Here is the input.
Amino acid sequence: MNKWVEILLGLVLITVAVLVWGFSGNWAIGKISFDFGSAAWDFLKGGLVWFVIMIGLLFLLLGISELKE
Here is the structure.
């Protein structure tokens, strides 16, 4: 993958994950209500956010390491 695409993708993934993490709350879309109050859903949601952050860091580090070459 291109080094600049890896850096950009890494930064986008990290930014989106941190924004979702910061702005998560009770959402309602139509008749569907996303209540993030239960412990199991919070655990799953937190794990997903950390997974996306780690993938973003991986892409960022891969892009930076390709800059040296």
Summary: The chain has one domain: 3-67. Residues 3-67 form one domain. The first helix runs from residue 3 to 23. Strands lie at 27-29, 32-34.
